[in-house]
C-alpha cells in the first residue's frame, strides 16, 4: 500500500471518531437528557466542562483528518511537502487525542456530580460523591444508588466517558501511525509506482 492510500485509510476513521467524540461531549451536558442541569450552577460534572471530546477529540482531530485525507487525493497535497505537513497535522491530532483521553479518564475517576446522600453525608446535596474513591466506585454498583438526581447519572457518565476514552485511544493510535506514514511519504514519496 502506498503512503497516499494509507493516509486515506487513516483519515476516514478519524472523521467518524471525531464526530463520535463531539456528539458524546455534547450529550454529556444533558444528564438524564434534561437541560435543567446544564443551566444550573454546580449541577454538571466538571470534566464535561473541559470539553475534551469536543475540542480535543473533535476539532483538534477533525482538522488534521481533513489534511491527512487531502494527502491521499491526486494533485492536491499528494507530494512530499504534503506528507511532511501531514506529520505536523497528525501531531496536533495526537495532542487533541491526549487531551480528550485525559479529560475522559478524569471524568471516570472522579465520577459524576449529582444530588446525593450516603452514610458520610446524611443531608442530601449536590456534589461529587465518588471523587475520593480513585475510580473504585466503578466496580461497586451498590454505591451508584447514592446519586438521587439526575436519574441513572452514573451509568450515563460511565457510558459516554468510556466511549470518549476508547475513541481517544483509537485517534491517538491512528495519528501516531500517520506520523510514521507521513515520514515515509516525505522520504520516499507518496506512491511506489510512477504514473
Task: Describe this protein's structure.
- The protein has helices spanning 3-28, 36-39, 46-49, 52-70, 80-110, 153-188, and strands at 114-116, 125-127, 147-149.
- The model has no long low-confidence stretch (mean pLDDT 85).
- Helix content is 62%, strand content 5%.
- The chain has one domain.
- The protein starts with a helix and ends in a 7-residue tail after the last helix.
- Helix 4 packs antiparallel against helix 5 (80-110) and helix 5 runs antiparallel to helix 6.
- It is mostly helical.
- A 3-stranded antiparallel β-sheet has the order 2-1-3, with no helix packed on it.
- The protein contains 6 helices and 3 strands; from the N terminus they run H-H-H-H-H-E-E-E-H.
Produce the secondary structure layout.
Blueprint: H1 3-28, H2 36-39, H3 46-49, H4 52-70, H5 80-110, E1 114-116, E2 125-127, E3 147-149, H6 153-188
Antiparallel strand pairs: 1-2, 1-3
